[in-house]
Amino acid sequence: MARYVALLRGVNVNGITIKMADLKETIAGAGFANVKTVLASGNVLFDSDRTDTAAVKSDIEAALRERFGYEAWIVLVDQPTLARIVDDFPFEADRDGWHPYVLLSSDPRVLDEMYGAAIGLALGAEEIRLGDGVLYWHVERGETLTSPFGKLSGKAKYRSTTTNRNLRTLRKLV
What we know:
The protein is of the alpha+beta class. It is built from 6 helices and 8 strands; from the N terminus they run E-H-E-E-H-E-H-E-H-E-E-H-E-H. InterPro entries: DUF1697.
């Protein structure tokens, strides 16, 4: 049995409000075991003996659409992969005044595209680095939405395939 992490995109922002108890109930109702939510931003841990991750992802998105009536998108990773992602964070994770972020995607080509686009931006002190299936981002507090990379990553064309988490949140999920 594998332990998975489902990271929901855009939950409890922009008018999509989901109570974590309802989210937990929905995932369990879709046939997954030992379901636990972490924080109120759409982070779900669960167990499954299913190995077809694309089908698991699809089933969860369908259950979310049906229950909550929105176009649900998730990024699905197993817990050992998430642990590796956290361990590989390349910047000073606990630097005072900075946010350590990880962008994850259901389509790794999107991260390559974002990284390529970011190379041409005037990033200043902001840092990005392409990792194994993720994009690491280090940005000063208060600059997340207004920094050059923050503006790039917030574009509508990336919404259906990417999600961003603070490294501290990912540590809790591990």
